[in-house]
Amino acid sequence: MENHNIKKLVIPSDSCMQDLGESIAKIVHETDVILLSGPLGAGKTTFAKGFGKGLGIKEPIVSPTFTIARELKGTFSNGKAANLIHVDAYRLGGKDYAPGQDTVSRLLDELESLGLDEALEEPGDGTVVLMEWGEQMAGVLANVRLEVHIDRPINKEKSNEFTSEGNRVVTLVPVGGDWCDRLKILD
Fold first, then answer.
1. Pairing of β 81-88 and β 69-75
2. Model confidence at 73: pLDDT above 70
3. Is Cytoplasm one of the keywords UniProt gives this record (predicted)?
4. Partners of residue 149 on adjacent β-strands
5. HSE (CB half, 13 Å, CA atoms) of 107?
6. Using CA atoms, how far apart are residues 127 and 174, in angstroms rounded to an integer?
């Protein structure tokens, strides 16, 4: 079934990717979950930097690849205090688990061991979750979420390798809640 609420945007530069992240941050509410996906170098962390700026976060936004998650303090557009949990799930779900255990169960076990499972399944008051590489857990983590898929261009002359040149295509997929209405600001 086709989702007619999906938005595709062509993003020509890093600054435009940051602007998109900032625009999305201005329409988030507490308890929202935003999942970022795309290949390495697609612009997930660049989006996250703009998102942090949109929440008025003063600390630098960097990919939490080695720390898995970072908590940052900011402010929602309505003036209420925001607690951003920025997660990078790239290293989660390794192969050192019981035979037959599915990927989602492994990921949830790791999140639980890190103390992140409750924050992601039921974000508390003032909390918004921005998760990079979270697409494997999308349905399990949040029934209501915004999925942000970022595609990099491919260089056909170099064996179909990804390139840092050219436009990114960002696909916004609203899942549940009032995301469709909130995304109208981007029209």
1. antiparallel
2. yes
3. yes
4. 37, 171
5. 22
6. 19
- Percent of the chain exceeding pLDDT 90 equals 42
Gyration radius from the chain CA atoms: 16
Residue 36 pLDDT: 92
Q: Alpha-carbon distance 23 to 28, whole Å?
A: 9
The strand pair at 168-175 and 127-132 is best described as: unpaired
pLDDT at 69 over 80: no
> In the predicted model, what is the mean pLDDT of the chain?
80
What does the alpha-carbon distance between residue 130 and residue 93 come to, in Å, rounded to a whole number?
18
Give the pLDDT mean for 74-95.
Answer: 81
**Burial class of residue 133 in the structure, from the number of CB atoms within 10 Å of its CB (0-12 exposed, 13-18 middle, 19+ buried):** buried
Q: Measure CA 144 to chain center.
A: 13
d(CA 172, CA 8): 6
Q: Do 50 and 75 touch, CB atoms closer than 8 A?
A: no
| HEC per residue, the chain | CCCCCCEEEEECCHHHHHHHHHHHHCCCCCCCEEEEECCCCCCHHHHHHHHHHHCCCCCCCCCCCCCCEEEEEEECCCCCEEEEEEEECCCCCCCCCCCCCCHHHHHHHHHHHCCCHHHHHCCCCCEEEEEECCHHHHHHHCCCEEEEEEECCEEHHHCCEECCCCCEEEEEEEECCCHHHHHHHHC
